[in-house]
Structure formats: structure tokens, C-alpha cells
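User: what does the whole thing look like in 3D?
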Amino acid sequence: MANTKEIRKQISSISNTQKITSAMEMVASSKMRKTQDRMEMGRPYADRMLSVIGHLANSNPEYKPLYMSEREVKGAGIIVVGSDKGLCGGLNINLFRTLLPFLKELSDQGIEQKFCPIGTKARVFFNNFGGEVVSTAEKLGDIPALENLIGAIKVLLDKFEQGEIDKVFLASNRFENTMTQAPQIRQLLPLLPEETPELKHRWDYIYEPDAKELLDGLMQRYIESLVYQAVIENIACEQAAKMVAMKNATENAGTIIDELQLIYNNARQAAITQELSEIVAGAEAL
Amino acid sequence: MATMQCTIVSAEKEIFSEAVSMVVATGSLGEIGITPGHSQLLTGIIPGPVKVVRENGEEEIFFLSGGFIEVQPDVVTLLSDVAVRAEDIDEAEAEKAKAEAEKIKNDSEAGVDFSRARAELAEAAARLQTLRKLRKK
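Assistant: Here's the predicted 3D structure for the full assembly of 423 residues, as C-alpha cells:
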């Protein structure tokens, strides 16, 4: 009977899909572990830099670096870190949902916004909804290279130096655990120096060539490393979200297969019964 | 022999972390050799080899593409760049990122269309919620 054949075809196609989703789940979970390790690896660099910057800023109070100076806010630059690929549940959507009220608030205050989307999904978002995109970086892969981000960040840093924008924000997902990823928006510039008492040492460095140049160079790298960390963390989030999404998809496929199997058995039984009664009826007619 | 802790880190990973007796690097103002007990120093380093000498006299050489070196009497930290940095290279990267952005700008209007964005997001969220409900059923 055609009906049973159709159902059988459907079942086999769904079980193929199930194989794919369960493979994707396994791939995502192994990738997630690797990116989590990578997240840890970059941390000493940023920590070390922050403590050196804090020390420099505290021992040179007369020099106020540009990246630390607060000024009246007329324009803001926003770096939005999204994923390159889809199939990761509500990860990107949640980020944009957090971002939108924040942007609305900025534009209500008359603050101009310039965007730097990182990752294809973020770029596509601004593609669809407008917004002045000044630079972008995408297709970074699983192991992003810092070089690919430097250009995009530099555009915003230059604008900050020229006074076109007065604040820089970073919107990305924070990795809490495998099940939860929380969108967050942080201020990158001006850098807020932390005045912890332990940083107020009595000694000072010997500087070669001089403190200002070193401080500026260090701060640029510090910002870059913060963005880089955010990108890595976002990849870990993406893989975690993908893993969960694919796990659910696999389970759903299983449920559908079970249901279809039941329908298939019914149909087959009905066909057999019908055939039998036809034979009996035929025999009686003779 | 006295030793000091030497750490080489980059934004992407920790490259080296061990007790050493000497570090030789090329600072922005010339070559510097650091032994334990050096006074606090902060300087840029230019792309080139960095030599570390372990306690037992073994030497190891790393190539760093620039960065900074921070010295304290018993700790040396090299903050390494991941790639060779020069003003013009950075500039070229920035141009590339800008050009890509220009491409996008051509087919989108200025100003975020809040209402439309929110509507589509709401729709997507609703879809997700429905899926979640279906799953629970």
C-alpha cells in the first residue's frame, strides 16, 4: 500500500537527519571543551597587562592617557560579537534583544552610534536593520587569529582618538556554563583604572624609552586582548548553545520517529486485515 | 645559582613559564640581558629572538614579534604580540575592515530601524518559545 511506503520513507529520512544532528552535537561538545581551554590560555596576558597598566597609571598621575579621559558623550562605538554560523539556538537573538533597548536609550540621548560587528550573524543583523557600520570582521573560524581583529578594532580606536566617538562598548555573550550563556554589554573606552591599594607600590619602573609611549602601546594591546577574549568566549558559547540545540533536535527526531512507527504499524495491520477480508470474501463468492 | 620566574605570554596563549637564570632580549633601545635581582624595568621589545638560559645552563630561543618586557627583581614577564606590528600593517588591516563595512553600508539605510528589528526579533523569539513548548508536550 502506498501509505505504508510513504511513512517508511519519512521514517528513514528523519533518522538520517537524526544521525546528522547527533554527530553535530558530538562535534560541538568536543569543540566547546577546546575553546574553553583557549579561553583560559589568553587570560594571563590580559591580567598581567592590566596590572602593569594600573601600576603605570598610578605612578604617573600627571599623565592622563587619551584612552582614560572621560569627555562629554556625543558618539559611541559599539563592537558586537556574534557567531559566524547558525544552528545555535537563541544565542545571537538573545544578544540582539539585549542590545536593542541599550541602543534605543543611546539614540534617545542623541548619541550617534557607530558599529563594528564581528561574526557573520552580527554583520547580517546590521545589514538588515541599518546602523552605521564602520568596520567588520567575520569568518574567523574556530581558532581566531588576533591579526584578523586588529584592523576592525583600530578603526574604532582611531575614531576615538579623533574625537568622533567618545565611548566604546563591547556586546558579547558570557559563558556561564554549558546550559547558560548570558548576553552582556561592557564599556571598553574610556578605560576605568582600578585603584586597588595593592597597586600603590612605592617603587617605580625604569622606563625605556618613556612611560607615555609604553602606556599607550600597552593600552591598545589591552583593548585588543579584551575583544579577542570576548570573541573566544563567544565561540565557546556558540558551541555550547549548538550542542544543546542539536541534542534537542536529536531527541525531537526520536519522538517523531516513534510516533511515525506507531502510525506505520497501524497502517500495515489495516492493510493486512483488508487483504484477508478480501480473500475471505472472494472465497465465499465462489 | 639564583633564579627568577620567566613568563612569556601572548594574547592567544602562554608560551613559556619556568625558572631561569638569564634572559636576553632586544629592547627598543638596544639589547638587554637580565639576571636575577635586576631593578624594575619596563620597555618595548622589537621583533627578534629572545634567549632564556635555564638554571642548568640549557638555552632556549624564542622568536617574538615584538611586545613589551616587564622586569621585577625575581619575575620577568614578556608580553608578546602575536604578529609583527607596524603602523602601516595595522593601517592596511584597518582599511580592509573599513572596506568590508562600506560594502554593507551600500545596501542598508542609516540609523537602526528599531521597530522593524524588534518586530522580527519578537517573532523569532516567539518561534523559539513555541518550539520549546512543543518539546515539553
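In plain terms: Chain A has a mean pLDDT of 87. The longest strand of chain A covers residues 167-175.
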